[in-house]
Request: fold
Amino acid sequence: GDLEQARAATLKAIELKPDHADAYMNLGGILKEQGDLEQARAATLKAIELKPNDLKKATAAKLFFSDLHEDFDHINRERESYVNGITEIARTPLEWERIDQSCSTDMFWIAYHNKTDDKKILESLGECLQSACKNKAKDETMPPERISAAGMPRIGICSDFLRNHTIGKLYSGIIRSLKQKGFHLTILRGPDAKTDEASISIDSLADASIRLPQSLAAAREMVRRQELDLLLYPDIGMSPYTYMLALERLAPIQATSWGHPNTTGLNTVDYFISSELIEPADGQTQYTEQLIKIAKLPCVYEHPQIKEISSSRDRFRLPSNHCLIGIPQSLFKFHPDYDDVLEQIISRLPNARYVLIEGQNKPQTDRLKARWVKRAPATLENTIFLPRMSQADYLCLLETVDLLLDPIYFGSGNTFYESMALGTPLVTMPGDYMRGRIVAGGYKQMKLENPPIAENIQDYIELTVRLAEDAELRSQMKQEIKTAAQKHLFNDQEAVDEIIEFIQAAVDEHRKTGGLLPVDWQSSRRRSL
Reply:
């Protein structure tokens, strides 16, 4: 974790052995973590130049995205380069050396571009890597073909983020309920998954917790030996390791969900668990998987501990005489199109200040600021960047700001739940894809009469201005939100009951026919609605 020492040691290795391809590969990873994207890419290109038949180095060099983009043209250029990279890798699959460790594909960033061809690109990526790996994996055990004949299903849940992380918060309640219902549960974690109090607590809910090895062949065989009926990957796209595992079928039924809100593009993943509340009418067309839409948001989220939380501008050294508009999201959610929206809002609210949290590293923050110098100077001038903070401070910040904005295209997830517990109004505008519709779907579940949901960009601007200027309206909305969230949003057993119903139905269908549920399958609750 000490990137500076790692960088120094790796540069020394290169000095001692200038043709050390692995050292250049490692240097690329270190530089990318530090936010030095240009030098990171140069290092990975040098690695593939020195070892041209290494698939792991090829994916790092050819499948590359920036975390923030200067404009829409920048996004298009990088996506075109990415597609060309897939084509180059797919063109000579027989030449790749055997790969037994995970590859970096940067597929995570695709969901943030707001483009229509995500599914096409991700399907091409999956087919490319499946082909490249399969040619070198003839000695591996064949995937399971039969599901257990009877009894409670054996469920595996594979993620590197089942800890004090958004994924852990979204799924710990589901894991607890599955165990209470009598399912046999196995937690599967990659070799680099972090351990904390939350991960230990989650592991205690399962029948078994397995730390998988670096070797993908050994990991796949270990998973197959569990004889799972259904393997759930909560967040394919968040971890290169779990993505590489999902390239093959390790259980008769494989599913994913909204931990990373985009299709996997993989023909080995059968179902995507989502919700009627957050999917657009044409939702199925955006998924390779069969879309399962339950009636509620697909999680059981515990109410955050907020007894000690109170508003405190002094704590963050925030001005006392300005309206504070919080957008405390990862900076890579700030799509270039959002710049003009923020400019229009701040031009209407000279007494307002945006409150953001610095990026994962200093260069990321600097890149957003540099973009705003050109595209959104008033936004930059009126934005306060706070240092990254603890969970307790983050909740305090959500309570301190006057209102919150949900970024367009890729909106809030975890922050939505936490802000609703505090009642802070969160202005949102549903997008064309599920990842931009979660807040609006949550408001629907909460049954708010007049939620701050905009119909379009202009409405989003007007809603924000209205709430910023009307303290009485904010206060009224805050109480309504807290009451509705307590009643309809947190610890929702109906949601997990629907998920359990789906799991049992999927297993039963496979036991009877060996196939999948009907495309129009609905939970009993959704049918009743």
